[in-house]
Design a protein that fits this description.
Strand content: 5-15%
CATH class of one domain: Mainly Alpha
Number of strands: 2
Length: about 250
């Protein structure tokens, strides 16, 4: 074999052994707990939600038909009250329009807790308004006609309560999913820490870096002179006792 071929084979073998040496023990993921699916009161699958929303749409149509048959201008009442009835009917139509907009969005995403909540909120204002109109219609038209208003109000109330139970189910389910994910994450972090213990590289000093040393205080010697009995004595402060030397006497 040619020297060049031997060199190539040797390089391949060396690279292979080096790659194996760098391999680490694989970390097994923690056992995954299944995402809980709790079938409690309030559970609804998407087809059931769509069926409920369709019933709400049919109830809207019925309310619009009933409002078209109401003629407050024929009622024997003061003009101010007659105008108030007209305003109540217009307000009811506006609130149903708002609810219908949320209903359409919920049909696209029947498992959205946010859209369920908004539809629930928009629907909650309809039964009280229909109940007030039912009393006025019963007094000024006929009790049977007023009972029809009360009936559609009860339909909206039932749909609202069903949506409320469904919303509670969604929130409970999401809370349990979040709790399971947090538990899995904590377990994964713990196992990862145990697996990586002692595998990290040791700390090495940075080249060409000055060592950090604590600063030292420097004491400066200070000489002070005092005169005793006509003689001047010099005392050096800030120096150890061994470093102090007696001042020489000068005689004139």
């Amino acid at each position: 074999m040619k020297p060049q071929g031997v060199l190539i084979v040797f390089s391949i073998l060396a690279f292979s052994f080096a790659g194996r040496a760098r391999e680490t023990e694989p970390i097994k993921p923690p056992s995954e707990s299944p995402i809980p699916t709790v079938k409690e009161p309030g559970y609804m699958d998407p087809p059931s939600v769509l069926a409920l929303l369709h019933q709400a749409l049919l109830t809207e149509y019925r309310v619009n038909d009933l409002l078209a048959d109401v003629h407050p201008d024929h009622w024997k009442m003061p003009d101010a009250m007659r105008s108030s009835v007209g305003n109540s009917a217009a307000e009811l139509r506006a609130r149903m329009k708002d609810m219908d907009a949320w209903r359409v969005e919920l049909e696209k995403r029947p498992s959205s807790a946010y859209l369920v909540f908004e539809t629930y909120q928009a629907m909650s204002v309809l039964p009280p308004r229909l109940d007030a109109l039912a009393r006025l219609v019963s007094e000024n038209e006929s009790p049977s006609f007023g009972a029809e208003y009360a009936s559609v109000g009860d339909r909206f109330l039932d749909a609202q309560q069903t949506l409320g139970s469904y919303l509670g189910y969604i929130l409970r389910n999401q809370d349990q999913i979040v709790a399971a994910m947090e538990g899995n994450l904590s377990s994964c972090q713990s196992k990862l820490g145990e697996a990586m213990q002692g595998r990290g590289p040791r700390a090495t000093p940075i080249p060409n870096a000055r060592p950090i040393r604590p600063a030292r205080r420097k004491q400066h010697a200070k000489a002070t002179g005092t005169t005793v009995n006509g003689e001047t004595k010099t005392e050096i402060k800030g120096m150890p006792e061994t470093d102090k030397k007696p001042a020489s006497d000068h005689k004139n």
